[in-house]
Amino acid sequence: MKTKYILFSIALLLSVRLNAQVNVDFVSENFSDKKAYKEAAKHFDQGRILFKQASEIYNIQLKFFIDDNYFLPSGINEMQGAGLDGFKKALEEFKIAYLFNPNCAILNYKMAICYYNIPVQRLLGLSYIEKAIMLNPVVDELAQYYLGRLYHLHAQWDKAVIAYGAYRVTLTSNPDGNKAKIVDIARKSRECFAGQEMQRNPQRVFIDNIGEMINSNEAEYSPIITADESSMFFTSRRATTGKQKFDKDMQYFEDLYQSVYTDGKWSAGVNIGKPINSDVHDATAGISPDGQKLYVYRQTKGGDLYESVLKGNRWTEPQRMNKNINSKKHESTVSLSYDGKKLYFISDKNGGIGNRDIYFSTMDSKNNWGPSTNIGVPINTVYGEEGVFIHPDGKTIYFSSQGHNTMGGYDIFKSEFSNGSWGEPINLGWPINGPDDDVFFVISANGKHGYFATNKAGGYGEKDIYKITFLGPEKTLALSAEDNLLAGVARPVKNVESLMPVDIITAQVTILKGTVTDKSTQLPLGASIEIVDNTLNQTIATFTGNSVSGKYLVSLPSGKNYGIAVKMDGYLFQSENFDIPVIATYQEIIKNIELEKIDVGATIVLRNIFFDTDKSTLKIESSIELDRLVDILQDNSTLRIELSGYTDSRGNDEYNLKLSEARAKACVDYLVAHKIKSTRLEFKGFGETNAIDSNDTEVGRANNRRTEFKILSK
Predict the structure, then answer these.
(1) Residues facing residue 603 across a β-bridge
(2) 10 Å Cβ neighbour count for 691?
(3) Neighbours of 176 (CB within 10 A)
(4) At 2, is the pLDDT very low, low, confident or very high (cuts 50, 70, 90)?
(5) 659: in domain
(6) Is residue 64 in some structural domain?
(7) In terms of domains, do 409 and 516 share one?
(8) Mean pLDDT within 67-95
């Protein structure tokens, strides 16, 4: 037995010795096959030349990116793509040399760096840098740093912290000269601790690559969507609309593409061409909730923002936004508030908190953007913010940041506006965010889907667009024993850890949309849609529908009583009223509107005229609706009209008849007080007759309590 043990031990030692890997430098004396060595060395040397050239391009790009001449933020994937072509070519040469000598430390190290600088393959670099350090622990002064970075990107948090710590030790010989690097390593270690904690408590989401209809083997990013999620625009670095000219980073210029959501899927992305795209960088910056205004980034004067308007089915020539928005520095993403009165954007203009901050500007009475204001802390940090998006609910802002408790690069955060200030930003968590850059997040008005750009394993190109489906709180089901067995066997289609309920947004907004047409011809009309806050008696927004399709879309945050007036020259306006409680969650209302021309017999219901209970006294919030009547009568000086009052069925017939007539007269008195001749006006009360809805419900009774306007003669 003892002899067998000794023999086994010797065999084991021999096995370990034979399989032990030692560093084998690429020098002739290490190889007996000189011919094979010569061929392999040729590829190794060529790879080193290409590697050096790619590294030099990277260093040139460092300054170029700092100058901010193109849209993708500096720092994204640590300037991914700079020298990309050179690193790819160098890697191909190194692969051939590797077949001959896989145990060369410097070869493994350089292969790891090549992979690291090819975004779609960067995670493959980990095994090579591990091997390089195993073969030669001091293969390069940056080896432990890159080992830490690759562990970090693989979400191997503990190993990353150890590697970062090892790299930090190499910096202590010159702590003053390496102060910035030491601070950076400490920061990256904190990111690992944050990532580790968030990975323990993943959010309930599905995350899917949006697919090859939109993503390509080039970079796609900066998705923007309309509030109803019917249309998406995004940026891609495919062949350009102009000459297929490469930029300084050896990639195609940026262009805008569009996709439409039909039959439950996104259509193939189509380059939207001129006048939006040009021969330089053009990128998606933002879109209005109704999709009628498009904001574009262009490579002018350091990078500026432009606005284009959809006229029918054509975009107008993008117009550079004013000096309150654009500066001599770099401006990028834009988000427009639900009422179109406030613009949020990114800029690195002088006087900011970090290298890129979120600013906002408010539209003045002349429809010009006023001076911009830094949104300040707690949102902006000393690092960088990017990809701002204000939800149509008007109170929730999303953005990406390199600060706060990011788990690496840019993470996506949200903040809510309450009591006059923005709340502390909240990291959206794992797996929405990861150790790489997660940027340009937008979310549908209903809060069910989000879209963002990131670089994940298995993607199509350098950066892809991904779709998030928010699952909401996990529900507890009452299952039988048999059901429990089946539930235990069943697996979700998508491989996502789902332990914690996600609280991304409880959408408190109503989307009102539809088409406006001529009642007689059914042809579409590009009408004006006026939104009134009846509580404040103020017009808060005015939108214009599409002149070709007649489509319109407005966002109405919960907690207000809204008056809606749809107007067009030559037509009677149509009035609607929506009372949306504070607690109301997302709803989508489709309201197709037919406008009548100003002709004899044309009638409209005035839904935003209000009286005190059981009285004929007009409430102040009725003035905006009545002023519209004044405008019609002033613009059409020969019109004679009748104002008719109606009540619901509560109360006796005589009382209702008198009340309805008194209310109609109150409207006539208002018009006379505003210089409309009484000879052009008639009034009549109809009580509870001619009901237009059921009197059995409160909603029906509210509809029956109304004032109507009818043209008697022209």
Answers:
(1) 710
(2) 17
(3) 6
(4) very low
(5) yes
(6) no
(7) no
(8) 65
Q: Are residues 276 and 224 in the same domain?
A: yes
Q: Do 212 and 311 fall into the same domain?
A: yes
Same domain, 569 and 607: no
Q: What's the rounded Cα separation, in Å, for the pair 276 and 281?
A: 11
Q: Residue 589 is part of which domain span?
A: 508-597
pLDDT value at residue 82? 53
* CATH code of the domain in which 551 resides: 2.60.40.2190
State how far the alpha carbon of 563 is from the alpha carbons of 400, 579, 583, 618, 702, in Å. 36, 9, 19, 16, 15
- 367 burial (CB, 10 Å; 0-12 / 13-18 / 19+) is exposed
Average pLDDT of the chain is 87
Looking at the structure, tell me whether residues 592 and 604 fall in a common domain.
no
Q: What is the pLDDT of residue 14?
A: 29
pTM over 0.90? The answer is: no
Query: What type of residue is 418?
Result: S
Cα gap 214→257, rounded to integer Å: 9
Helix count and strand count (H, E) for the chain: 12, 35
Task: Give backbone dihedrals phi and psi of 89, rounded to 5 degrees, phi first.
Answer: -65, -40
**How many domains does one find in the chain?**
3
The DSSP secondary-structure symbol of 246 reads: B
Query: Which tens digits make up the pLDDT trace of 227-251?
Result: 999 999 999 998 766 555 555 566 7
**CB count, 10 Å around CB of 469?**
14
Q: Which of 567, 573, 528 is nearest to 546 (CA)?
A: 528
Q: What is the pLDDT of residues 36-52, one digit of tens each?
A: 999 999 999 999 999 99
Residue with tokens 């989508």: 588
CA-to-CA distance for 80 and 123, rounded, in angstroms? 13
Mean pLDDT of 699-706: 85
Q: Is residue 479 part of a domain?
A: no
Q: Which of 451, 470, 489 is the last residue of a domain?
A: 470
Query: Residue 601 burial by CB count (10 A; 0-12/13-18/19+): exposed, middle or buried?
Result: exposed
Contact 455, 80 (CB under 8 A): yes
Domain boundary, last residue among 442, 470, 498: 470
Give the type of residue at 709. F
- Please check whether residues 439 and 339 belong to one and the same domain: yes
**3-class DSSP assignment, residue 599:** coil
DSSP 201: S
- List Cα–Cα distances, 334 to 154, 242, 284, 307, in angstroms: 32, 25, 9, 10
Nearest-Å Rg of the Cα atoms of the chain is 33
Answer yes or no: is pLDDT of 342 > 80: yes
Same domain, 558 and 608: no
CA distances from 690 to 687, 706, 709 (A): 9, 11, 14
Tokens of 638: 């020969």
Q: Cα–Cα distance between 452 and 460 in angstroms, integer?
A: 15
